Amino acid sequence: MKVAVAGCCHGALDKMYETLELLQRRHNVRPDLLLCCGDFQAVRNEADLRCMAVPAKYRHMQTFYRYYSGEKKAPVLTVFIGGNHEASNHLQELPYGGWVAPNIYYLGYAGVVRFRGVRIGGISGIFKSHDYRKGHFESPPYNQHTVRSAYHVRNIEVFKLKQLKRPIDIFMSHDWPRSIYHYGNKKQLLKMKSFFRQEVENNTLGSPAASELLQHLKPTYWFSAHLHVKFAAFMQHETNSKEELPKATKFLALDKCLPHRDFLQQIIDVEHDPNASESLEYDAEWIAVLKATNDLVNVTQSSWNMPEKNGLHAKWDYSATEEAIEEVLNHDLKIPCNFTLTAACYDPNKPQKNMEPVHTINPQTTEFCAQFGLTDINDRIQQAKEEASGRGECEEEEEMDSTGSAEEPSEYNTDNSGLSSFNPDEIMLDEEGGDEDLSTCSVDPSPDHPPEFSTSFSDIRIMPDSMAVSSDDAMDSNNEELEKSGGSKQVEEKSSTERSLKRVGGDENGNSGIKKIKRRNQTIYAAEDEDKTD
């Protein structure tokens, strides 16, 4: 089975599918499945644009709405995860996954599906420590904080995925697993992206939560995007016993949508079951895990830790038993083609710039939860809102910090999913700024001259027992507040050589050590200026 893998497509679906069709004409290569690793931008209308965390000048409708309306149909089955530039209100309708358009399937906050017998999993969003232990409490219309926190990875999703015992063939994350850069051509990576050096040397680049999943799941393939650079690695995992067969993961980070000559390198042959269904299917073990963890659903801002074997929890193992999996197998696991329009579609002849987002219960989610006896997260959020309104309570925004709640320390003590040093590819978001007017400025998601970088897997190494956060990662809440207050002072028109990077020396204990470069919002985006300088 041929599987094509794409990085951040930033809503440019026409270009992506045209590239695949060009591959078929020129090279007689036709993929059976297309995977997209986030920043998909399933934007249906102007209200969706308001829910995408980018400055107004980058808010452009692009072409997804044509597939949503039925004007066009994806020529190949497409499965994607969310990134940090998404129409969060749209994706929030489908917390367990679902169709965003015919033949285009979203995996949800986290999910596992099967196609032709191949198990495909993924986790959406990026890692931020100050939101990691909260529930999925956000709902549209978002404010300046929740429009960003809505796409932050939560510990409940990582916990669910860690309950899986059966092998995973392919896994996707938007941000890279931390430490993965030590298993590939690091020298070439730093040559292409020299501003990664500090994070690579300090082992702070990437997501510690994704690293935890990589160590647990040990998939055959792991694909990521986010940093807009192609990078390959090969990781040989340690075995837990003499009886366990050695496992290895082929990692590939994808650049933005690329011309056909590079896309051809991103089509892989994956062994599949020729007798398996040609339809996309739910995964029985994953459904059993969802059922087992259903009581852990949290829709509050309160920070909490997942159950673990520490004497504080009566139950900590939520993995699926064989009996539970067999019970799920009694259901029809073919994912129904039940796509439904839940919002008005953009009409270029009748623009509605003042359209506001609303909190929507998607019939797909309702049907899925009814079939498997699960809690509809959005229905729970709506109930919580109504109860609070009935009591005359007003929801207050929690002050964001980098350590989680005051009662318990955060599971991870740093806030990162990308870069703290200046990145010329990234888009500057004002952490304290309000909503901006919509703009029709277009962004081309692919460079004219993408870097030539070999995707061959090399540099085989043994994965360490732990890929946890290093001691060098420590960043206290004071640093976080400095970053917020300083973010709005950046002048966008300045060139990279004119920008001054604020540094904070010492740690919370007063030790001097290495100076910290001011952490900016870790959002990597397609900047128009990059195309002019490549």
TrEMBL record:
Keywords from the UniProt entry: Hydrolase, Iron, Manganese, Metal-binding, mRNA processing, Nucleus, Zinc
Keyword Nucleus in the entry? The reply is yes
GO MF assignments:
metal ion binding; RNA lariat debranching enzyme activity
Ranges of Acidic residues composition bias in the record = 427-438
| Known cofactor(s) | Zn(2+); Mn(2+); Fe(2+)
Where does the protein end up? Nucleus
Q: Name one GO cellular component term.
A: nucleus
Entry's family note:
Belongs to the lariat debranching enzyme family.
Q: What is this protein called?
A: DBR1 enzyme
UniProt source species: Grantiella picta
